[in-house]
Amino acid sequence: MPPFRIGFLKRKINPDEPRNDTTEEEITDIKSDEELIKGDLDGGSDAADSDCEEEPVESDVERDAVLFDDSADSVLGENDDAEDTDESDGTELSSSEAENSDENNSEASESENSKDSGAESGTSNVQSLPNTSGQSTQRSNRRLSQRKATVKEKVGAAERAAESKQTRDQIDVLSERISAANVSTQPVQQRDEYESGDTSDEEDRVNTAGDVPMWWYNEYPHVGYDLDGRRIGKPPQRDQIDEFLRKCEDPEFWRTVKDPNTGQDIVLSKDDLKLIERLRTSQIPSESHDEYEPWVEWFSSQVLATPVRAFPEHKRSFLPSRGEQLQVARIVHALKMGWTKTRRQRARDRRRDKVKKFYDLWGSGEVEAEGGSGPRARPVPAPRRPPPTHAESYNPPPEYLLDNKEMKEWEKLSETPWKRKYTFLPTRHAALREVPAYPRYVRERFLRCLDLYLAPRAIKMRLTINAEDLVPKLPSPRDLQPFPTSESLQLRGHTGLVRSVDFDPSGQYIVSGGDDETVRVWETSTGRCLRTVDVGGPVARVLWTPASGLSLVAAAVGDELLFLNPGAGVGAHRVAERTDELLERAPPQHDVVMDERTRACVTWHEVAPDGELWARGVRIVISHFKQLVHLSWHAKGDYVAATVREGGARSVVVHQVSRRRSQLPFRRAAGLVQAAIFHPQRAQLFVATQRAVRVYDLLKQELVRKLRTGAQWVSSLAVHPRGDHLLVGSYDRKLVWFDLELSGRPYQTLRLHGSAVRSVVFHRRYPLFASGGDDRDIVVSHGMVYNDLLQNPLLVPLKQLRAGEPRDQLRVLDLRFHPTQPWLLAACADSTLRLYT
Amino acid sequence: MVAKKKKKFSSGEGAQFMTRKAALKKLQLSLKDFRRICILKGIYPREPRNRKRAQKGAGGIKTLYHTKDIKFLLHEPILWKLRELKVYQQKIRKARAMNDYGKMRKYFRDYPQMNIDHIVKERYPTFIDALRDLDDCLTLCFLFSTFPSLNKVPRDQSLLCRRLSVEFMHAVIVAKALRKVFISVKGYYYQAELEGQTVTWMVPHHFAFQPQSKDEVDFKIMSTFVEFYITMLGFVNFKLYNSLNLVYPPKLTAGFSSKSDKELVDEQAYVAERIAAMNLSVARIKGANEAEELPEIDIFETEDQDPQKLEEAKLEAEKVKKLKTLFKGLKFFLNREVPREPLVFLIRCFGGEASWDRDHFVGATFDESDESISYQIVDRPSMDKQFLSRYYVQPQWVFDSVNARTLLPINKYLMGAVLPPHLSPFVDKTKDQVYIPPEQRALNDPEYKPPGEEDSDEEIEEASDEDKDNQDEGDDTDDNAEDALTKQYQDELAQESNSDVDSNDDMDDDKKKLAKEKKKNMGVKTGVPHKEHPYQKEIEDKQAFKLRERLVRKKHRNLYKSMKAGAEARKKEIWLLRKKRRLHDEKAKEEKKVEKRKEKMQALETSM
């Protein structure tokens, strides 16, 4: 009987189980002192329990469908039973009697027997086959019990203690058999011994549907046909709720499987499970199979008295093969010669080859001279990582630790960590053992790797100069004295903006005019106001005549140009008189010829000597068609160039005082004229328009050159006393120096001011120039012009002088140097004149 | 005949550069292989001078490689190897797909190795070149030597890293080349001077390896780098050992052999372990004369070098010579809790002997009970059993001593003491506008005493501190200096003028008298030199400089501005650090005072 049948066999016995249990318990009580078997006993009882509980289900199934005409419950187990019955057929009666008689007494002996049988169980099948009958009753009885035991043994090899229970079973089974003996009529002897063991046709007996998918029967009330062609009914179908309930209630649910052929539920016994387990772990199904049986060497060197086989040994069994010999010889030779290697050698070699070999790669250090640029582009070495600072220390100085404020900043930048001051948080550890591993270490190394192969590289020249080196080296101001260094005098008296100031040619007097409609004359040395002339309009410009021996001031008041004689109170008495005389004498009429165009825009008015104007000092009045903005005397003191606001082509008017006539030098408008100035020596006129300065030759009446200032809006213009350098101030904070000998482009553009430049001026004797505007400071600079044409002018800003308070964002409106002293006079917007010495 | 129109971007910058995509197409490589070959060959993208032109007019930012570089790659034999590998991998893939595992295993077994020795030679034509570029190599190798076997990092790679890094450390020990060390929060920094090249590397603290998320770290890339670095470091080690007359691969000295004669199971592993312990010197080449000292350096008088520099160089050489024998004849015992490897490396580098507990690590040479031990490095607050014959110092003492190039007094570093700050030796002291902590200043000139360290009379201390603080303020606030100067000067002027006014009042009364006196005094007198006020001079100079600043050329104006801004920022930084230090010191002093007072009170109470 194959071992996997055992479990099924057991099911056959099920109906008897409850009874068995009681007996079993009794027996266990009796045998409880046998420690050897304790554990196994429990196991047995388990199996019994499961059988017991299994029963109702089984009966349920049976009730619904009549399947088997045999008395057997289990289809599978029946055969075994039959076998058993067959084997013990002849002796059953007597044995049962015997057993009954000495039931209690024989227990011990039974157990002994069973133990024996357990030991023999491996071979019991084989042995039991030949001897079937014709044995003594005792013997057969034992055999029967043995056989039963074998069945049990196959369930669990160690389960020997359950023997007593089994004997009980056997007795019941026997009694059953006795009752069933008349059913089986076939004599044992005539049956094929393999028939009972052959399982292949068992299935057929149950369901002859064949190897077809069972779902074919889904729609039918049956699942197939038995051997007799009768339908095998389906057991009642359970829905999921039933399944579930069963699952909850039935502890055997997990070991219940459905037989697909019959639709029956089969509860797997413990032995079945064990069997399955063994199959799953790919062990031999039978536990009793001994894998390590003693080996019987049938074919050995020992010559037996009788040969095992009937034929003689073949020749090649005792003669070595020639071919093989040659082959081996060849291999041995190859190995000897080192032509081939053994597998082990090959593995060793492979291992050896895997170990990297290092050698002197660079040799003696000679490098092949690389020609030219080489095969690859010029390598750019990767920059090294910056070395660690104190902050990175595990125990940094306390000042490197972040305080509360910095910590807040740190946390604020948690979203954008690259903006933080450090890549790590400076932390203090009291001891080296407290320093943890840096969590970002691997990441940082990885980023470095990325940098090395992914970041674009370029060679950037780094400046190693100091910032100070970019500042031009210039001589110290101390070496360039004298220049005005501090404010020494404030002349107060004007009540409005002071628009313009000027020194008289000797430098003794100052004349100033402003928005308070007065022209004032001051004494330089004392700062006293000598005279105030009310001119009846805001004064745009006052200029003292450059001619010595005359006391004449040109003042631009609205659209009128007034020539004032400051009077006897100012300066020498005789000079004033002479000036009056000069002006009194009117020029010959034939000389005073003005063309129509000029006459249309300029009118000369003589002032009557006894009039009120005369008393105020006004000698000549020239009225223009528009407002005057700028005046400039010719060096000789005869001509005055007046600039008219928005005059178009008639912006510049040149007046000749001695002849009392005017000229309009330009036919066409060159732009918005800001100022016009005479060349100090030559007959040239500098005309500053908004962006450029034009130089005109007055004799030839042509444009000499055009100087592009580069400024957006020129504000003022000054000519160096030598006449070959020009300084232009602009509202866009620039100060442009032109070297007329050099080029028409600026020699230098100075940005010394923070806001608009309104006035620039040269000193007549010293190499100084000054500029002022809406800035806080007036800047006095050194502007040295050399005789040597090859040497460029030297420009050094020297001193910042604090100007007055601002009014309407204006500060300094006009600047003038003293003709002989290094003194600077500024007309300030806060209605003062300031003298810096 | 009309000349053929020149195609755009066929010369100049447009032809010089190549996008990565174009490079891939040209080389017929996958991006993965291209990345690998770029890493191995040291090819990197370039930043063009004019990106628009370099990208042939295309917008955006592309990765640009130099065309020459790519053409250079085209001739690389490794390229073919990579292609072969690709085929080989296909074979493996196929075997796996066919469930032919035996074949697959065979393929894996015979996986072809790539030889990149020639690339090392090509990238570093001389040994010096290799040394110059050793920083990243060492740092990465030291990191990898701590790695477990990872998916992308083969085990033998990290093992080889370990072997090579230990070998390198041995070379540094024998060459006595270590110069600077530093413990940072990230790890240990070392700087060695090999063949005149400074090599700086970093070793992580213990347990540096932490699992990294996939998008944070790509170990494959790092592993490719390490593949090259291993080869490079191996050759560098070989050369170093050769030049130091050592046997390569390192062996222990002949005197050393396993104590028992019994056969060792794996002698190689046994020796490797002892070599890794770094406690024993490695074998020299036979016949090489030992202890070869460098000859005295002759100094030639050259015109361009000023004598001060020469003197400095001489002094430096002297110091280095001293440093090399800093720990000579000293025996150190390392406690269990002390990081063994860095300390043994340091001690052995400067001629000391080190040992540790036998159970802690292999290779211990003497026991704790050895009486000749002079220093025991401990990192715990107290110890039960102490020997009187030795000092118990904290590990920082070793590091600080090396950086100071002398054996520092141990009183600040005793067991359980609060350690002084550990300063970085890498901060360039020669640069201006660098903050120097007071501890370092104290090291540089012994006369300087860092504030907050004196524990003499409190009042005196305070006074001196205040002085110092004032000085500090004067030093650091250059900005305010000017204002302060002007103010001072103006005050003086005002005083003068006041006195003048006073005299004027008098004059009203005694005008005539004075005039008479003046007349009397009229005459020629010896002139008194006009003494210019120093403050005024300074102010004037400042003002003049400010004016001159405006004359900076337009071309340089932005540069000048940024340089000025940088200087300003650095100044501010220094100011901030000074301020923080001052506040800290004040606070510490206050605490000390309170503590002292408390102690006094307690003492009084107890006496009462």
Automatic annotation (TrEMBL), chain A:
<dbReference type="InterPro" id="IPR028598">
    <property type="entry name" value="BOP1/Erb1"/>
</dbReference>
<feature type="compositionally biased region" description="Acidic residues">
    <location>
        <begin position="195"/>
        <end position="204"/>
    </location>
</feature>
<dbReference type="InterPro" id="IPR015943">
    <property type="entry name" value="WD40/YVTN_repeat-like_dom_sf"/>
</dbReference>
<keyword id="KW-0677">Repeat</keyword>
<dbReference type="InterPro" id="IPR036322">
    <property type="entry name" value="WD40_repeat_dom_sf"/>
</dbReference>
<dbReference type="InterPro" id="IPR012953">
    <property type="entry name" value="BOP1_N_dom"/>
</dbReference>
<dbReference type="GO" id="GO:0043021">
    <property type="term" value="F:ribonucleoprotein complex binding"/>
</dbReference>
<keyword id="KW-0690">Ribosome biogenesis</keyword>
<keyword id="KW-0853">WD repeat</keyword>
<feature type="repeat" description="WD">
    <location>
        <begin position="491"/>
        <end position="532"/>
    </location>
</feature>
<dbReference type="GO" id="GO:0005654">
    <property type="term" value="C:nucleoplasm"/>
</dbReference>
<dbReference type="InterPro" id="IPR001680">
    <property type="entry name" value="WD40_rpt"/>
</dbReference>
<dbReference type="GO" id="GO:0000466">
    <property type="term" value="P:maturation of 5.8S rRNA from tricistronic rRNA transcript (SSU-rRNA, 5.8S rRNA, LSU-rRNA)"/>
</dbReference>
<feature type="compositionally biased region" description="Acidic residues">
    <location>
        <begin position="48"/>
        <end position="59"/>
    </location>
</feature>
<feature type="region of interest" description="Disordered">
    <location>
        <begin position="1"/>
        <end position="206"/>
    </location>
</feature>
<dbReference type="InterPro" id="IPR019775">
    <property type="entry name" value="WD40_repeat_CS"/>
</dbReference>
<dbReference type="GO" id="GO:0070545">
    <property type="term" value="C:PeBoW complex"/>
</dbReference>
<feature type="compositionally biased region" description="Basic and acidic residues">
    <location>
        <begin position="150"/>
        <end position="175"/>
    </location>
</feature>
<feature type="compositionally biased region" description="Pro residues">
    <location>
        <begin position="378"/>
        <end position="398"/>
    </location>
</feature>
<feature type="region of interest" description="Disordered">
    <location>
        <begin position="368"/>
        <end position="398"/>
    </location>
</feature>
<comment type="function">
    <text>Component of the PeBoW complex, which is required for maturation of 28S and 5.8S ribosomal RNAs and formation of the 60S ribosome.</text>
</comment>
<feature type="compositionally biased region" description="Acidic residues">
    <location>
        <begin position="78"/>
        <end position="90"/>
    </location>
</feature>
From TrEMBL, chain B:
<dbReference type="GO" id="GO:0070545">
    <property type="term" value="C:PeBoW complex"/>
</dbReference>
<dbReference type="InterPro" id="IPR001357">
    <property type="entry name" value="BRCT_dom"/>
</dbReference>
<feature type="compositionally biased region" description="Basic and acidic residues">
    <location>
        <begin position="442"/>
        <end position="452"/>
    </location>
</feature>
<keyword id="KW-0690">Ribosome biogenesis</keyword>
<dbReference type="GO" id="GO:0000463">
    <property type="term" value="P:maturation of LSU-rRNA from tricistronic rRNA transcript (SSU-rRNA, 5.8S rRNA, LSU-rRNA)"/>
</dbReference>
<dbReference type="GO" id="GO:0000466">
    <property type="term" value="P:maturation of 5.8S rRNA from tricistronic rRNA transcript (SSU-rRNA, 5.8S rRNA, LSU-rRNA)"/>
</dbReference>
<dbReference type="GO" id="GO:0003723">
    <property type="term" value="F:RNA binding"/>
</dbReference>
<keyword id="KW-0698">rRNA processing</keyword>
<dbReference type="GO" id="GO:0005654">
    <property type="term" value="C:nucleoplasm"/>
</dbReference>
<keyword id="KW-0539">Nucleus</keyword>
<dbReference type="Pfam" id="PF06732">
    <property type="entry name" value="Pescadillo_N"/>
</dbReference>
<dbReference type="InterPro" id="IPR036420">
    <property type="entry name" value="BRCT_dom_sf"/>
</dbReference>
<feature type="domain" description="BRCT">
    <location>
        <begin position="322"/>
        <end position="415"/>
    </location>
</feature>
<feature type="compositionally biased region" description="Basic and acidic residues">
    <location>
        <begin position="585"/>
        <end position="602"/>
    </location>
</feature>
<feature type="region of interest" description="Disordered">
    <location>
        <begin position="585"/>
        <end position="608"/>
    </location>
</feature>
<protein>
    <recommendedName>
        <fullName>Pescadillo homolog</fullName>
    </recommendedName>
</protein>
<feature type="compositionally biased region" description="Basic and acidic residues">
    <location>
        <begin position="529"/>
        <end position="541"/>
    </location>
</feature>
<dbReference type="Pfam" id="PF16589">
    <property type="entry name" value="BRCT_2"/>
</dbReference>
<feature type="compositionally biased region" description="Acidic residues">
    <location>
        <begin position="453"/>
        <end position="482"/>
    </location>
</feature>
<feature type="compositionally biased region" description="Basic residues">
    <location>
        <begin position="513"/>
        <end position="522"/>
    </location>
</feature>
<dbReference type="GO" id="GO:0043021">
    <property type="term" value="F:ribonucleoprotein complex binding"/>
</dbReference>
<dbReference type="InterPro" id="IPR010613">
    <property type="entry name" value="PES"/>
</dbReference>
